[in-house]
Write a structure and sequence with these properties.
By secondary structure, the chain is an alpha/beta fold. It has 2 domains: 241 residues, Glutamine Phosphoribosylpyrophosphate, subunit 1, domain 1, CATH 3.60.20.10; 190 residues, Rossmann fold. 36% of the residues lie in helices and 23% in strands. It has an 8-stranded antiparallel sheet, with helices on one face. Helix 8 runs antiparallel to helix 14 and helix 13 packs across helix 17. The two termini are 12 Å apart. Bound molecules: 2-deoxy-2-amino glucitol-6-phosphate (AGP). The site of 2-deoxy-2-amino glucitol-6-phosphate has 16 residues, from helix 8.
């Protein structure tokens, strides 16, 4: 999604804006731009493309100045192009603005401005803000920003720069995240603290409907009524080490390799070593509340929704509570079916996903209890939900989720066990799982160490145009997620199915050119999976089996093997997903794809 950076200080703004854009680029974008106050004018450079390609051609002399704004755009209103890129300007060049989010009354305001003689040049809703602000500004930026808040509907974070006040950035937040920071003689504003961490000592999280004036002297926060607000600033403690890829060629590979440590941290943080209880201190629900839950809806989008599939199975099997996954965009809050005995669990890496957030709001309005399983504490969904489970995976930069997916699975398993405990039935399950949980990081490490096997498979399948992924039980989610990883970063069309569904339709696609990845699993599931693999082989299909390291039968029935350590069946999906992440990575690399920023995708999807 879009990203915002603004700077005002004594030094040159341009390098800081370009660096900020680069740091925001993990969110996914299709165009980028900057505006700098230079010699009484606002100079704009912008276009579609990557900042690495755009910035070298920008005229540094014309862009010389000590205040400016920058933006990464992910197209919603109008295709990626120079004219639609941000910053947007008014006709006279008095105002520049960058914008994250969507202006909902865009058409009405556009018509009103056109009737007053304004000529629009872009297809964006953002241009409305530039013209409107230019007309509302009479020397008092807070008054103009108040009018913007009063007249505009939707979700928007905005930063304005006016030619008449080149040392003042005016930021407004409604719905999209924004943080303001400062250090001696420097003021900054951004949609993510990452973009300003290298320059700000302290930062203020801007809240809903707040207006912030950013100057070299610091930041001043105002409410929507214009009154000055006293807001505490926190030290900027962003961990710089996570800002680099180190020796890894891509963020995705680095994040895959981080999984053993992240999972070890999560197990250590969540399980009380003395009493063996699960610690979820921010759940906001008592044991009596948890015991009274009659149904659980797990809501998420994309990869998070696949984690929800797994979570629903865990809630039903371990806690004995009926549970289902609902894609965020399909959640319908039927008031008569909701209420305090329904728990809605929102699962999200970014905590900003609009569909998931809307589901939470609807569930709350219908009286349901809500909990967020989230990776970002300072996020929109975190602020909405009644309780919070921190996935604790650290910043995930690659657009394709890896370490957060396994963090989601583990967090949901522990949440299901916590509910089971409150209902007097989780003790035995947790006791049985304890040694397996302790051994999990090492099992994941061994799965990663099997990368050479994955490279061989990648060599075999990287020219495929279609792939199938099949699994049973908890590995149904692994299959769907494995297919998602493949399609989003390699652009191979891949679909995941419950293996039993294969012969009800997808088997018609089976051929040597359509490789099938089969997650064999254990016990009864494995017996049935071996039969499914034979069905594929009988139709000349190429089968790659994710199988236990010692599974001799798998070697007899499959063409290629991705060996994995054998672990408790509830933890198996966390281990089995590793070779599928690596396979997607290796195939995408062989195909020359942009692994960390796949086409058309954004890291956080803040529109419905
Ligand atoms: C993950 O690989 C995807 N890029 C995508 O499906 C993602 O999981 C989805 O957009 C939900 O995002 P969230 O977890 O931030 O809510």
């Amino acid at each position: 999604m879009c990203g915002i950076i603004g700077y005002v200080g004594a030094g040159e703004a341009l390098p800081i804006l370009v660096e900020g854009i680069r740091l925001l680029s993990y969110r996914g974008y299709d165009s980028a731009g900057v505006a700098v106050a230079h010699d009484g004018r606002l100079v704009v450079e912008k276009d579609k493309g990557r900042i690495e390609d755009l910035a070298p051609s920008w005229d540094r002399q014309k862009l010389s100045g000590s205040s400016g704004i920058g933006h990464t755009r992910w197209a919603t209103h109008g295709r990626p192009s120079r004219v639609n890129a941000h910053p947007q300007q008014d006709a006279a060049g008095d105002v520049v603005v960058v914008h994250n989010g969507v202006l909902e009354n865009d058409i009405a305001l556009r018509e009103e401005l056109e009737a007053a003689g304004v000529k629009f040049v872009s297809e964006t809703d953002t241009e409305v803000f530039a013209h409107l602000y230019a007309r509302l500004f009479r020397g008092d930026p807070v008054a103009a920003a108040r009018e913007i808040l009063a007249r505009c509907h939707g979700r928007f974070s905005l930063v304005f720069l006016h030619r008449a006040q080149p040392g003042t950035l005016v930021a407004v937040r409604r719905g999209s995240p924004l943080v303001a920071g400062y250090a001696s003689g420097v003021g900054l504003v951004a949609s993510d603290v990452r973009a300003i961490a290298g320059h700000a000592d302290r930062a203020v999280e801007i809240e809903e409907d707040e207006i912030v004036i950013v100057t070299r002297d610091g930041v001043a926060v105002h409410g929507a009524d214009g009154a000055r607000k006293d807001r505490a600033a926190h030290a900027v403690t962003y961990d710089d080490s996570s800002l680099g890829k180190g020796a890894f060629p891509h963020w995705m590979l680095k994040e895959i390799h981080e999984q053993p440590d992240r999972l070890a941290d999560l197990v250590a943080a969540r399980i009380d070593p003395v009493h063996g209880r699960i610690r979820l201190d921010e759940l906001g629900l008592t044991d009596a509340d948890l015991a009274g839950i009659e149904r659980v809806d797990l809501v998420g989008c994309g990869t998070a929704s696949y984690a929800c599939m797994y979570g629903a199975r865990a809630f039903e099997a371990l806690a004995g509570v009926p549970a289902r996954m609902v894609p965020g965009s399909e959640f319908e809050a039927r008031a008569e079916l909701l209420g305090p005995r329904r728990l809605v669990v929102a699962v999200s890496q970014s905590g900003e996903t609009a569909d998931t957030h809307a589901a939470v709001e609807a569930a709350k309005a219908a009286g349901a209890r809500t909990v967020g399983v989230l990776n970002v504490r300072a996020s929109r969904i975190a602020r909405s939900v009644g309780g919070f489970v921190d996935i604790h995976a650290g910043p995930e930069i690659c657009v394709a989720s890896t370490k957060v997916y396994t963090g989601m699975l583990l967090s949901l398993l522990l949440l299901a066990l916590r509910v089971a405990q409150a209902r007097g039935r989780g003790g035995a399950a947790l006791a049985a799982l304890r040694p397996a949980l302790d051994a999990l990081p090492d099992a994941v490490r061994r799965a990663i160490a099997g990368h050479d096997h994955v490279r061989e498979v990648a060599r075999e399948v990287h020219r495929a145009q279609n792939m199938l992924y099949i699994g049973r039980g908890p590995d149904h989610a692994t299959a769907v997620e494995g297919a998602m990883k493949m399609k989003e970063i390699s652009y191979i069309h891949a679909e995941g199915y419950a293996a039993g569904e294969l012969k009800h339709g997808p088997i018609a696609l089976v051929s040597w050119d359509v490789p099938t990845v089969a997650l064999l699993g254990q016990g009864d599931a494995r017996t049935k999976m071996l039969a499914n693999v034979r069905e594929v082989r009988a139709r000349d299909g190429l089968v790659i089996a994710v199988a236990g390291e010692d599974d001799a039968d798998a070697r007899k029935v499959a063409d290629m093997i991705l060996p994995v350590p054998t672990v408790d069946p509830w933890l198996a999906p966390l281990v089995h997903t590793i070779p599928l992440q690596l396979l997607a990575y290796d195939v995408a690399r062989r195909r020359g794809c942009d692994i960390d920023q796949p086409r058309n995708l954004a890291k956080s999807v803040t529109v419905q």
